[in-house]
Structure prediction request, 978 residues.
Amino acid sequence: MTKKTQTAKQTQKKTTQPAADDFPVVGIGASAGGLKAFEEFFSAMPADSGMAFILISHLDPAQISILPELIQKKTGMKVVQAADHLKIAPNQVYIIPPNRNLAIFRGNLQLFEVDKPRGTNMPIDSFLRSLAQDRGTGAIGIILSGTGTDGTLGIRAIKAEAGLVMVQDPETAGFDGMPRSVIASGMADYVLPPQRMPEKLRDFVRHRGPVGEKNLTDDAKLTGALRKIYLLLRTATDRDFSQYKRNTICRRIERRMSLQRIDDIDDYVRYLQESNVELNILFKELLIGVTSFFRDPAAFELLKEEYLPELLRDKPDDYQVRVWVPGCSSGEEAYSLAIVLRECMEKMGRHFQVQIFGTDLDEDAIGVARVGRFPESIAADLTPERLAKFFVHDEKRFTVAKTIREMVVFAVQDLIKDPPFTKLDLLCCRNLLIYFGPQLQDKLLPVFHYSLRPEGLLFLGSSETIGHTSDLFTVLDKKWKIFRRLPVTSPGHPHLHFPVAESASAEPGGQPDKGTLQSAEQPREVQMAKLLKTVLAHSDMPPCVIVDGAANIVYVHGRTGRYLEPAEGEVSTNLLEMARPGLRPGLISAFRRMASERREITLKKLRIEEKGAYCELNLVVRPLPDIQTDRRGLMMVIFDEVAGGGERVGKPSPADQLEKNEEVKRLEDDLQYTRENLQITIEELETSNEELKSANEELQSTNEELQSTNEELETSKEELQSLNEESVTVNAELQSRIEELVAANDDIKNLLDATDIATIFLDINLNIRRFTPRSTELFHLTAADIGRPIEHFATTLKEARLVEKARTVLKDLGQHESEAEDAEGRRYRMRVRPYRTSNNVIAGLVVTFENISTYRQLVDALTESETLWRGLVENAPMGIFIVTDGRFAYLNPGARQLFGVGGQEEMLEMPIFDRVHRDSHTLLSSQLATLAGEKKPLAAIEVKWLRMDGKPVELVISAAPISFRKKDGALFFVREKL
Prediction:
């Protein structure tokens, strides 16, 4: 099935909806240049994604962050600043406040005081670690633009929980330090520009869910698919994952299926068959390379303070302490043990040779461990003292110091099938067994027991146990899982599934081969010895011995007692220690030549003395090919006596004796001369050594001062770098605010220009701060006049008295409004108001001049018209009144006289029919209805009215429709009937 076909098929399937409280949480970390990336990300992210977003940025602790306001403008989701104990919800954005570290626990945000100086605080790592622990597979980590390495270790934690990791493409980042650090760790699932991340996020969430729910209806289907996946992995990598915990394997497979948008596990198996790239990625995922320095610091402190001193107390000086760390990943735990052992030796005042073996299945992780360079974020796991003492800081990285690096050897090893290291004092296997099934754990723990020396220590992770092998180890600390090896009393112990000898060693002489993991099993040694015996027994060979590259005797042929004898002291099988006088220098010379030339070396006529007698022999050192054994560099040393009829052994003649005495006398004289010269040389050397020692002490003192100065400079550099990042972030926020202010300023300018109002802004001293172009028509102002007092300028306004009024407003904090006229007769409304800041502080005045010439002309015309028409109506020789809504609204003096009232107030709002005689109600009602309906004037009619004193009066009226006070009404003209 092709990828395209898979995608088409998958779009038709329903995805599993997560539980209400199981929504994904996205932790987004950024530093310098992160604001632009944040804005691009949220501009493309829908408001109903079903995810919660938590933003962690390096902020200036002394500045109030405006990041929530800036992000809110780019998204429809609610954006809030994180608060202590705040419960998160989907479709919301939470932003870390300044000068705080943030964590999440059971869906609630927790704020912590920052207790570290600038440059050492890693807020992104800290939050992402807590996010991984709290949400598991629902944790999503995104690293955007920024300098340094903050976020790398947090991403490792998210990857360990099978979460999703996204990184901004360094080519699109303003600062690429943080993105490149995560990419270099190999933990990134996607490397994308910020605007493309939301699409991938939504795809991942839509296909998120347990493997068992991805169209699997029975366990048999899952079991069969897993077997095929194990087979594909074993064929491609020669590694067997079938004994790993099934849940662990399923989580990793489910994660890859989600990333590939595959819902059916059988489809994923087919995809693995077609894609070697995906097969390799899955293999890397299953290795789960997650570690850190001093994980569980209390456990390492207990080991250093109590159990290691007890283990090493009775060991001789220069004793070799052997430690094995299987599953070491990128080496942090191995280096942690090296630091602990170094500190322990310093505290005890003893020196031991320390050899730590770090092994892992992941070749890439071993490569990282060998380099020993780690991101700055490890500062969160190490004390400042350890960082300064055991690491070298350069270029945003910490490199392990040489004294620690030389204690550790790293190698690739398959713990399941490769032979183990032996004769160990400490075996540290922390958080590795939790990924193995019970059967594999039961198989490995006896191997660990066999690898340890008597009284050796086993150090496991806090979540691991020794299971069914409690008779192989005794518990020293139950909480931190520190165990001591117990002796095995019976060779047929039920938990030992392989033949072992308690004294067996993985390397000859107990010295490890740093590049290779060697077997300690004996059958190969036996096979090699039988083979050599068979070969030499059928050859006419002089007495000889077979030795390895360290000159240890492997096999003896013939009678060699004349050439070799046991050395005094501890029994040794080393050829150089057993060689008789006269033979050792020749052997050393031959071995040195053999090491460089790798060919047969022959030394002739070497003389061996024994009790006054001597014999001569030819010494032959011949290299041997490797004979199916783990031993390398085998050599055959042949003792071939010089031919001459048998042994040349006897007492020397007198002439030989005289010659020998003279030779001895000459040699003694030479020796005396040499001793005198040597003594002089020694005295001169001691004098030079004293001078060098004094100079060295001075240099050491100078070096310590320089180192102290360098540490101070490093600290200052880190603080400056952190301050620079914070400044970049603040500058980005301020730049955004400036752009907003520029836009607002443009809006205000256009508003003032559009209103055509002359405006002058004055400061508290009445100096000009700003003015609009219209102001130049009233005051002769130019741009160069800003800052000058307003009283220095003449105005075209007559008697404006602006300065006097301005000072009055400043004194009273009130407002002033008046009208003024310029020389050309234009009228202006002048307003003077206080200038108040956002903090309600009086910072000056705002003076506006509104041209009201046209308005005043209209007012004058209306006033004149009003006067004219009011004179006509008030002095008309007839009654005039207005009716609206059936009530009197106005009566002129003539109407008031006809109705017998002194003032119109007595009849205002009175219903018109209260003054109509009942005999005329019908007539007037019909006429008014016609007037309102047809909107035509009403011809003169006779209507009987009632005066205010109740007397009837007959009046002739006519009417016309009008609008009075925004109401429809009628204008009535009345006169008495003649």
In short: The first helix runs from residue 3 to 10. The mean pLDDT is 80. DSSP finds 25 helices and 35 strands in the chain. Residues 500 and 634 are 25 Å apart (CA to CA).
